């Protein structure tokens, strides 16, 4: 999210979290938002700050400035770094890019360093590609750490019941990340399209 009007609209929908990207190279960069633009977000909707290889001071500064609830790390942050964020009182989501089943082995490094994993499509960029990976890869996931499913999830997945079928059989699935396939432009969500799958 990066637009005050769009944030107000999203705050009325039955969502559990809203993401704010603080990576300056992203077209969804939210660092120019006035902190009060997040005031319409009710406390039951958690505010997630997304960072890519930022230093600790920058993350903690933005977390305080925007009253963030969770921190999502989308770069090459180490397990030690993740633990450092957790020790500051924030729940941590660590992105694990997935291109094949071997990528799941990266989870072992972060087992006790984050609260959630986020499985997104492996690309040269840091997510937001709008591309889906093969969800069957996650049948080999055997960690107790809950995870977010991300990467190119759109209306087609809901209409075909593909997503419902996956959710019914997935173990430790915690949340579904709806992003680029529900955008009018980067960082601007299509409210009517979201309503069609959320209400």
Q: Which descriptor suits the 3D outline?
A: globular
Structural class: alpha/beta
**Count of helical stretches:** 7
Work out the number of β strands.
9
Helix content: 25-40%
Distance between the termini: 20 Å
CATH class membership: Alpha Beta
Mean pLDDT, to the nearest integer, reads 94
Strand order of the largest sheet: 1-2-3-4-5-6-7
Give the SSE layout:
Blueprint: H1 4-10, E1 17-21, E2 46-51, H2 56-65, E3 70-73, H3 79-87, E4 91-98, H4 107-110, E5 116-121, E6 147-149, H5 155-159, H6 162-169, E7 173-176, E8 183-185, E9 188-189, H7 191-198
Parallel strand pairs: 1-2, 2-3, 3-4, 4-5, 5-6, 6-7
Antiparallel strand pairs: 8-9
Task: Characterise this structure.
The chain is α/β, with parallel strands linked by helices. The protein has one domain: TIM Barrel, CATH 3.20.20.70. Helix content is 26%, strand content 21%. The strands form two sheets. A seven-stranded parallel β-sheet has the order 1-2-3-4-5-6-7, covered by helices on one side. The longest helix has 10 residues. The two termini are 20 Å apart.
């Amino acid at each position: 999210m990066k637009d005050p009007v769009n944030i107000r609209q999203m705050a009325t929908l039955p969502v559990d979290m809203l993401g704010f990207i603080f990576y300056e190279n992203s077209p969804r960069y939210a660092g120019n938002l006035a902190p009060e633009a997040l005031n319409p977000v009710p406390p039951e909707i958690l505010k997630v700050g997304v960072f890519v290889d930022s230093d600790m001071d920058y993350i903690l500064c933005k977390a305080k400035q925007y009253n963030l609830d969770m921190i999502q790390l989308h770069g090459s942050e180490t397990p030690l770094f993740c633990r450092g964020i957790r020790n500051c009182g924030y729940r941590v989501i660590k992105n694990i890019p997935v291109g094949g089943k071997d990528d799941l082995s990266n989870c072992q490094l972060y087992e006790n360093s984050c609260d959630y994993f986020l499985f997104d499509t492996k690309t040269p960029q840091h997510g937001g590609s709008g591309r889906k990976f093969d969800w069957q890869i996650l049948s080999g996931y055997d960690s107790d750490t809950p995870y977010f499913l991300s990467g190119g999830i759109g209306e087609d997945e809901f209409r075909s019941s593909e997503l419902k079928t996956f959710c019914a059989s997935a173990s430790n699935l915690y949340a579904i990340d709806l992003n680029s396939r529900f955008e009018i432009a980067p960082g601007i969500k299509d409210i009517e399209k979201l309503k069609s799958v959320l209400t």
